[in-house]
Fold:
Amino acid sequence: MTETWRVVDVEYPDDPFMNLAVEEAIPRAVGEGASPPTIRFWHNTNTIVLGCFQSAALEVNFDECRQIGTDVVRRFTGGGAVYHDAGNLNYAISLKKGHALVPGNDLQEVFRRLSQGGVQGLRDLGLNAEFQPINDIAVDGKKVSGAAGSIKWGTVFHHGCILVTSDLSILGRVLNVPKAKLADRHVPSVQKRVTTIRDELHRNISTKEVRDSIVQGIETSYNVRLEKGTLTGREMSLAKELYQWKYNRDSWNLEGRSESGEVGPIRTH
Amino acid sequence: MDQTLLAADYKGPGGKLLRIRLTEDQGQIRKVKITGDFFLIPEESLPKLEKMLEDTPIREKELRLLVDRFFRGTEAQALGITPNDLVNAILAAKEEAL
Structure:
């Protein structure tokens, strides 16, 4: 029997803090058994999203952020900082731990397996897309998407952002790219080894068109049926709590400390 | 009190970036902050490692024993960094100060 997954397009483009609160609420609810396997699509506008282990002070160029009006928010997963504008499509997959697709406890396998739907969606658009370990999707060797994820709260969680029409020039302004990061790469600037779907397709394309193609890609790759849904009451109340105690606070976003042990990892700096 | 602040950004081949900021006192780590774009699950285990590293001599053998003990004891899973990278990154901070 084909499994049915829920797809939610719940987003707060002008409130990145609420976006990240929802991002945590869904996998928590899935792990509780209160929500079905879920994929979420969403957008931020003008936001840096830091990995949970990153130092805001080291990674972020706050002067540029002030000038451009960029918000800084931290996610609960590891990995590197990304810049989100409206031309960037975010997706997140939450499956109950032990799901047949990713039965083990291997994070690299989670990235490989759960990137496949996105890879297929991009191929269906005519792109030569492939998963590139550790956590990227590349088109002809250039990165168009980065993923992060975790296995926690009884959930296998994978999320990623896809550069559809993003302005890549902002990235290098709002983030400090350390020299060591570039040491083993052949091309010197972030811009040259990263690309957008629009640039690779040589045509204008909306994030909606990419989203629809990924929905198809997920259905074929995993043999599941996606059904449009909304957030449950439990998810909304979790999201509000997470917003209040974690994602709307500098202590989390800038210092990586959450105020309440109830709702997130405690990081003491 | 003769404390020195040490720093290193270290990246193993094909791996993720480790950014070490530590306070050294008489050859030992007093306090260390490990940041970067790596993955480690459970995420909450990183402060445990930082705590374990306190008062450890900044020498390869001691650091290696401790990092190995951390991974065995917590069953933490790292991706993009290896135990070896963690040791090398801390040693690099010491090197850079010389």
Helices of chain B lie at 45-53, 60-74, 83-97.
